[in-house]
Amino acid sequence: MSVDEKTVRRIAHLARIAVTDAEVPHLQGELNAILSFVEQLNEVNVDGVEPMTSVTPMVMKKRQDGVTDGGYPAKIVQNAPVTEDSFFLVPKVVE
Amino acid sequence: MTELTHLTISEARDGLKAKTFSATELAQAHIAAVEKARALNAYVLETPEKALAMAKASDEKIARGEARALEGIPLGVKDLFCTDGVTATAGSKILGNFNPPYESTVTQNLWNDGAVMLGKLNLDEFAMGSSNETSAYGPVVSPWLRRDDSGSNSLGTVLRSARDSATNTLQGDAGLLSKFRVPGGSSGGSAAAVAAHLCLGATATDTGGSIRQPAAFTGTVGIKPTYGRVSRWGTVAFASSLDQAGPIARTVRDAAIMLRSMAGPDAKDTTCADLPVPDYEAAVTRGVKGLKIGIPKEYRVEGMSPEIEKLWQQGTEWLRAAGAEIVEVSLPHTKYALPAYYIVAPAEASSNLARYDGVRYGLRENGKDIADMYERTRAAGFGREVKRRIMIGTYVLSAGYYDAYYVRAQKIRTLIKRDFEEVYAQGVHAILTPATPSAAFGIGEKGSGDPVEMYLNDIFTVTVNMAGLPGLAVPAGLDSQGLPLGLQLIGRAFDEETLFAVGQVIEDAAGRIALPQPWWA
After folding, report:
1. Does A78 touch chain B if contact means CB atoms closer than 8 Å?
2. In chain B, domain spans
3. Which residues of B touch A34 (CB under 8 A)?
4. Can you name the CATH fold of B4-144+181-291+431-510?
5. Which of A15, A37, B410, B451 is the most exposed place for a label (fewest CB within 10 A)?
6. Per-block average pLDDT, block size 10, for chain B (521 residues)?
7. Do B139 and B169 meet the contact criterion of CB atoms below 8 Å apart?
8. From CA B364, how far away is CA B357, in angstroms rounded?
9. Nearest by CB to B468, which of A13, A56, A88?
């Protein structure tokens, strides 16, 4: 499978990465090089094979459902580009 | 006496204990070496004040007879580990001046054992790369030169003048710059710093070969432990089902000492195994008598360099001579590991890196609405390789392609793991392979047109991550140009001890590699 320019733009939008017109052909070439490299996986017979979900057999660790940490909002927002009263600020989403 | 920076961790530990020198003197010697080696660009951030404060505390501990396992040992930290109050970049511009208010479990474990932090080490952006050239803070240059290029002091001058003081990128004639070798990646800063004597050991991480390939390129020892042996908490995530932290050091024993401190159960990482950590250092002298070592025929890839082939054969002979039984084994799905990795790893990366959106930390580029803000922020903050991988990951996870790519790759991963299980079920204790398909290449030499050319570096290492197994890279010789080459040992899950035992036999047989003289200083 290979991707065309329109698909490159669609993927970029899904990935929330702005791309310029000049970048699109380069990205297309690079993505197609990778896609053609992974094409060989189609040679493998995977009938009846379970997809891997956990690389080492392990039971998910559980803990009591309770608050174990927190209470320091200033620390949480200290690295944010824009904040107000311990809230993260984003551009207006709902009109 | 040996220069303080040229000691191994075990020698430094003995010297500190015997009070031959102090932790402060040891830290000072390293701080001076780091300053003189800025042209290599191994450190993205030096923390000399922190190092001296930690060394002072270590000296007090030693004076009271309370020295811990790594008391006073100066280490470098790959800048993928969050360290409380010290900026973390992950080699990316998108993290801006991110200053984590918490400490990763790995680094906390090291400080709890008395280690001293010299600074943060350069890496490929978000650990995505095999040459350290994707770092947003400029490429690391390996301390190694080809034999024909070494011996002249002029390359030190060339390097210092090529380094742009604002961006740390290399500017100048591409032909001249290609004389400099890459240190490998993504833990290129870690490997270069250890090889150039800018720390006694370093933390590193490995998602597809990022500890073992740079270790092999720089004549150092690196181990990627079993998935779950070391906590991932507080380490910037790339591909969560593959990422694992480990040490890079100058000897097998040093790697064993460091791993023991780094590893262990952690309630903050649900994938971290609740298993006790063995005394790895005790394992290094076990030898290989009675061990069965597998040689996988599928690693004899088409077009393999005769030098690598010879090195591999030599390693086999060394182990046989030391009493191991050598058997040929088959891992039939080997060739599919790398393509499957280039689906699984980008898929996980596209998900993990969704958090860099200009809201909670790091860079923000304003836009006309929130989606535009996200898109501009991520376009400005991520480098080319990272964008490429996020986009591949987004594509293979998108509606209509998920089964054809992602599910198929995860099925192939099951087959890769099964290959190893069948070999281990035959009584094989460890597997010997080359670590890399070649010695270190030149800066700017690979991957500019076709990203796959660079990806092929990980052909021997990536299988190990896909199967969650431990892998150790150990220096085994030099190529015809005088550059180091490494062998890889692959072990059973949670049996790093055998890798240290076998690795020590190779180190003893090969002899410790003489690391380069400081032409950069």
Report:
1. yes
2. 4-144+181-291+431-510
3. 342, 388, 392, 451-452
4. Amidase signature (AS) enzymes (3.90.1300)
5. A37
6. 90 97 98 98 98 98 97 98 97 95 98 98 98 97 93 85 94 92 97 98 98 98 98 98 98 98 96 96 98 97 90 98 98 97 98 97 95 97 97 96 96 98 98 97 87 90 98 97 97 98 98 93 89
7. yes
8. 8
9. A56
